[in-house]
Design brief:
- The structure is a single chain.
- This protein is of the alpha/beta class.
- The chain has a single domain, classed as 3-Layer(aba) Sandwich (Rossmann fold), CATH 3.40.50.170.
- It contains six helices and ten strands; from the N terminus they run βαβαβαβαβαββαβββ.
- Strand 8 and strand 9 form a beta hairpin.
- Helix 1 runs parallel beside helix 6.
- The longest helix has 24 residues.
Amino acid sequence: MTAQQKKRIVILISGSGSNMVNLVEHCQAVKINADVVAVIANKADAAGLAKAEKLGVATECVPHQGYESREAYDHVLVERVQSYQPDLVILAGFMRILTPVFVSAFADRTLNIHPSLLPKYKGMHTHQRALDAGDEEHGVSVHFVTEELDGGPVILQAKVPIFAGDEVEDLQERVHEQEFRIYPLVVRWFCSDRLRLIDGKAHLDGAGLGPHGYASDE
């Protein structure tokens, strides 16, 4: 029996790249059967680029300014990502709404992490929105990327409590801690061929997952 070939991962970032660093370190420690072959940012000043270089990962910047449309930019981005022949594309704080041009190019193999218990609070400012709504719990979701913004099938969620007197920063820190736990786990599932997107639904070990992903309360 031969060892499973390592998957090739490209990670897209826009900022500090904290989740990216966590994933690269998991791969380099062989906790995930994959190599991060490139980190691509849409902002030249994204702090994550220097962090990736320090970890020995190839980096590239594909600035989004100057294109006539989102689609025009995504055509270029697709070309650059495809040049690394990825098995998996990971969004880790990539602050761009992707068009069908990009999504269709990497259908069934693009993951994102979103700081809310989807389908609640798609889009921005999720921590503040949870506080404003008086929610008792908040959390984070890892999902497959589809053409619907933050609307792809959820794979795994982690919940955190909201306490009286919490500020955005408190929630952010609590959610961040869970992000570092669940994103590597989901990536490991994918790279071990346990996780697949079939007919628009996430499947783990051949079983379809519910609307809130694996280990849901429902």
